[in-house]
Amino acid sequence: MKKVEAIVRHFKLEDVKNALTERGIHGMTISEVRGFGRQKGHTEMYRGTEYAVDFVPKVKLEVVVTDANLSVVVETILQTAQTGQIGDGKIFVTDLSNVIRIRTGETGEDAL
Q1: Range of the domain at 53
Q2: Using one digit for the tens of pLDDT, what is the confidence trace for 32-48?
Q3: Which residue among 41, 62, 85, 96 is least crowded, i.e. fewest CB within 10 A of its CB?
């Protein structure tokens, strides 16, 4: 099993969610996050004053999938979230040793 964490732009979240759902991927966690990468933030004007925004708001999407579905999830997120501009985000893939469904006690892939 794998955990896929994707940091994407806010306006791409609905597109990514719909694309994953169409491919049979259900269950995800969404978090509002802020950070920066190579873009190192940006400057904005507010009431005539320029100020620096060091941490750019993004959305973190977390999906736990079987090894068989990993490539589908990664490709779907890549194709859907990409704008070609700096700041499109990142995808992180990590191994999971176990998953346990609290309600039933099911473990492993049965818990997904």
Answers
A1: 2-111
A2: 999 877 766 666 677 77
A3: 85
Which CATH number do you get for residue 12? Answer: 3.30.70.120
Sign of CA dihedral 95, 98, 101, 107: positive
| Strand stretches in the chain, DSSP E | 2-8, 29-35, 42-46, 49-53, 56-65, 90-95
Distances (CA, A) of 66 to 2, 29, 50, 52: 6, 16, 47, 41
For residue 17, CA distances in Å to 22, 23, 36, 62, 78 come to 9, 10, 23, 11, 12
Cβ-Cβ contacts under 8 Å for 36 (sequence gap 6 or more): 54, 55, 56
Mean pLDDT, the chain cut into blocks of 10 residues (112 residues total): 97 97 94 83 70 84 96 97 92 96 93 88
What is the reported pTM? 0.84
Please tell me the predicted confidence (pLDDT) of residue 43.
66
